[in-house]
Design goal:
This protein is α/β, with parallel strands linked by helices. Among the domains are: 101 residues, Roll (Nuclear Transport Factor 2, Chain: A), CATH 3.10.450.330; 216 residues, Rossmann fold, CATH 3.40.50; 195 residues, Farnesyl Diphosphate Synthase (Orthogonal Bundle), CATH 1.10.600. The protein has 49 helices and 31 strands. An eight-stranded mixed β-sheet has the order 11-12-10-9-15-16-17-20, sandwiched between helices. A hairpin with a 2-residue loop joins strand 3 and strand 4. Helix 2 packs across helix 3 and helix 12 crosses helix 13. The termini are far apart.
Length: 1237
Amino acid sequence: MAAALSFSRSDSIADSMPEALRQSRYQMKKIFSRYVSKGKRYMKNQHLMDELDKSVDNELEKAKLMEGFLGYIISSTQEAVVLPPYVAFAVRPQPGIWEYVKVHSNDLSVEGITPSEYLKYKETLFDEKWAKDENALEIDFGAFNLSTPLLALPSSVGNGMQFVSRFLSSKLGDKSESMKPLLDYLLALNHRGEKLMINNAIDTVNKLQTVLLLSEVFVSGLPKNTPFQRFEQRFQEWGLEKGWGDNAETVKETLNCLSEVLQAPDPANMEKFFSRVPNIFNIVVFSVHGYFGQEDVLGLPDTGGQVVYILDQVKAFEEELLLRIKQQGLNITPQILVLTRLIPEAKGTKCDQELEPVHDTKHSHILRVPFRTENRILNQWVSRFDIYPYLERYAEEAAAKIIDYLEGKPDLIIGNYTDGNLVASLISSKLGITQGTIAHALEKTKYGDSDVHWKELDHKYHFSCQFTADMIAMNTSDFIITSTYQEIAGSKDKVGQYESHYAFTMPGLCRYATGINVFDPKFNIASPGADQTVYFPFTQKQKRLTQFHPAIEELLYSKVDNDEHIGYLEDKNKPIIFSMARLDVVKNISGLVEWYGKNKRLRDLANLVVVAGLLDPEKSKDREEIMEIKKMHSLIETYQLAGQIRWIAAQTDRARNGELYRCIADTKGAFVQPALYEAFGLTVIEAMNCGLPTFATNKGGPAEIIVDGVSGFHIDPYNGDETSNKIADFFTKCRDDPSYWNKISTAGLQRIYECYTWKIYATRVLNMGSIYGFRRQLNKEEKFVKQRYLQLFYNLQFRKLAKTVPTVSDQIPQAPTVSQNGTISITPKVPPKQRQVCPLFRNILKKPRGHPSRSSKVVFVLLNPPSMATVLGLSEAIREGFYLSDNSAKLYGPRHNKKIHRKKPKWNLCSMHAHSKHSSGGFKLEDRRNFQVYSSLVANQVGEVATSSEQKVYDVVLKQAALVNRGLRPELDVKLELSISDSTNVLKEAYDRCGEVCAEYAKTFYLGTLLMTHERRQAIWAIYDWFPLQSQPFKDMIQGMRMDLKKSRYKNFDELYLYCYYVAGTVGLVSVPVMGIAPESKATTESVYNAALALGIANQLTNILRDVGEDARRGRIYLPQDELAQYGLSDEDIFNGRVNDKWRGFMRSQIERARMFFQEAEKGVTELSQASRWPVWASLLLYRQILDEIEANDYNNFTKRAYVSKAKKLMALPIAYGRSLIPPYSVKESSLSKSLS
């Protein structure tokens, strides 16, 4: 074994390893030669150690090697990739800390590599073509967390709330101005519009501090138990509202707590204060899959410990909320909803009941929402592996149900498992609610190497959907709740569940350079307990549920086989080894049976009783359970266990199960939890609560619950012989010393009472909701940016994957009817066929002929969406190429090199034909790239200089800017309003319908709009469908439509420029008010409009160059005829698709012109409002890459379509975001001018 060496996060393996290799060069040459001798391969730690063992014959040398630095590194390597002559290592010196290096097997040179580079090496073994594809999709969520402080030490992982409290204390500081965010947060506190704690009379931190001091002195003079109502009026006069406490004592404590935070913030005060803030009253918990109910569900497919966990969690939440609300002096009724799936084919359970009260609570309910496809309700259960196609619509309906039931938004959302967490993420993002997630068990760690082998498993488990959903939920959530440290970061030898998602790859699908970092302060440990009214010690005789004893006696010892149990126990005097779990591979019940069957000594000492799943494979619909049932029958027969084993079907009566644990304890038995991996282990807590000595897996949470050899025992599920002998040793010792059994039982109970109760859990989680809710408000800009990235990833990746999952297709249209008792009945319903019409337009059509609203709107229906999409050049361009553009239709960039003055514009950029040899206008532009650009002004027949297209467009720009200047500067941010006589729902429907049209006819453009804020997104959708009739750009856009109908050739660039303005520039001009200009910008409004114009022209020119072949097949050529002639090209060359040197030269000149427009556009982007810069930068950078793709295709735009890959688009977002942080160029220019002057 390698020595325990000291290794800090600042040490670099890549720096230290070469010297260590040099010192043992001879042995290491042999070892590395052996590693590469078998060619390409993937090696786990055990393989590396075995090869090392075979390479070094001398035991002393081997021991010395393993005690040194190299032994430490190799033993810390989780996996390695061999690509001769290189070996790439993924080294994990400590939990959560990873370093990647590659070693050359010949000269033993060492080079540090990035996680992305290591993953590419790994991918080569599974999908070499994809690994080498530079356009392969790579996701790096870490790029959006650069400003997020991280924990430093592995020992700190899971203590996120304490870290956040320290960070908030530091950020708020002790200066009054730095406390303003806290004041704003408190001012926003309310319940259904009623102010809490403080009102608007306190509008500064100094006022707040003064009032706190005054109030504290006042309540100090009152008796401690004086009700708040006695001095509520006095508090209101000072600007304080209810919520401080129920009596003078608690009010004083809260006042003092906030005073200390304001005067000298520290983590303890911060956490204490937020535990008292009245900010959580309504909680929604999601648990979507399986049969979620309170009776007769345990043991059904996908239904196990999580149901018990959530029901106990909800009870604990309600108790804690009621206590807090009382102490806060409020008369508010908390509400908790468990959102799950309604299943009409409920198998005798209440899973077909829409609303069900939670037992032993007053204000908590289970709310069930069905799965739907189109207008159909899904009747039957669906496996958790096949659930993904239904989740998006489920989330939409669930959100509406929640708001309707709670009469508003919840204060906290908590998801459970992959599906529940994804739904929680969708709803929290939509409603802007603080979100916590609980994984329970991440499938990626259950199935070894399931990421690299996802293709082989996807048809069965749909890991592509699951892992994608997990990554979205982890990165969306405000905080993550785990039960143990191991769940997050594992142990010294085993990688944690979440840690395994740090950097991983799914070859052919997606590479996660950074998925989730366990040092992120969103991770917290909150261990659940067991219901101590159900699970109490066997020694409490007066509480024992003796009414169950006859049934339990029959359950354990009857010799009759039936549907509930098979097998029998010949010797009733033996102690019982007991286990209870779902019957699947990971729970490993069949493994326990095999260990028992193989160990004769253990079989002589004890009987075996297991409660697990169904007994008949024909009665199960779960793939894994069927396989395990068959295996159980085979093991019982193979090892001839008749008379020594009792197999009991899953039991759903919790009260009887509690007494069953105690009856096992009466036999001086033991509980065994043999899972291959267990995130936490509720059954371990239940058994220990009942006083039953417990053996539990050392793979996961139970290793933290139990102190090995003190309060129970750890077992290795991968070493059955060792485990069975350890259990046998225990029973042998108990036989020889009966007090030993009592010693372990008592120590187990003590451990539970100290660490694992629901009271501790509820207090901790509600404190998280409060602290992280404030952090969310404080970091809303950073949260917004990452959320836009996640929404794009969801739309581009998850939606596509979910469509590949087969859905149940044997349904008929259903319409649900809810009876008085809440049960849903199903009746056939045939939905009427209706043409899709915009609700706003439908509303207008209802008006009588001649009504003003009808006369001003009806014209829009004439604009067939496909035609409109074709005419709007920019929209078409975005639709074809911009997956990632936020404000896709926003066109920016300065049109001129120098500032334009309204009265005397300096025209120095007209025709941008880079290689023109003649000039008729003579206005010369000196370009910094050493070529000349000339105006395309021409003379008419009478010798007058005709007005150029560019001058015409510029006149429109001046008019638009003048209109804006009259009312919208300094910050250009139009709030679109529309007065409609019908309900406000009609307006919402109208916007939604505009979005639907946009999504249908401009898919990529639509995806780009998802990056925008809600208001801007709606405005852009409306602009796409309904241009303002009174604006000149709209009229010009109509002119562009007419040009497309009658014109298919353009004599020169002047004509083409005008066309580009009509079909693309117009969109930019009407989008400027939506995008907004930064208030700090020094740029003129005209220059911003010119920026929009420049980007619009650049995009449309790019669009034209990309679509040359497609347009030619329609008989259209959108290229300057005079410039084609200069290169010796004709229409015939275009129609025949000839790619030759002439064509390449022509295309180079056209691309160069388009790039000049992009270059002119760049400065203008910086002048936009902060909310708009990122998406516009994304659109500019990505669309310009189409030009690169044309060049990469050797200028063949006849038969090859140039497009930017999805991977490049996603990878460009962080770059665009970085550029969006750059302040307006005009501000920097102004500052420079001042400094020079």
